[in-house]
Amino acid sequence: MPTVESFRIPTRSHHVPTARHYVRKALADWGITDELAERALLSANELITNAVTHCLVSSARVRVTLVLCGPELVLEVSDPDRDRLPRPRDPGPDEEGGRGLALVEALADTWGHRQGPYTKTVWARFALTPEEVTGVPSRA
User: From CA 109, how far away is CA 65, in angstroms rounded?
Assistant: First the structure.
């Protein structure tokens, strides 16, 4: 049975550090540390920042969900701006932004997005090593 941690934040950039804190805590509670935790946390930061920055629905909230299921960690970031799908960019060397999805692609084993009736979700998946799987506490 998967272990799930989920929370919501307003679409305001000053809430991104709070979201990072919640992600870091969930990973630590599950015993996920070191390199995998850093890759997941950096990916979460990029996906949450993108959702907060690009969602045009007023008074929206971003939902962050972490799912630990067997040998895989899944990170999902959802927002109600369902028609603004993520598009990887190729920014010039002088552009400050535009590298977030390329970074997620480099850090995650796979990533993508899906549209629901009222939301879009951008997800990233991370495979756990056998040592990480055995170190994860089980929840009853």
Answer: 17
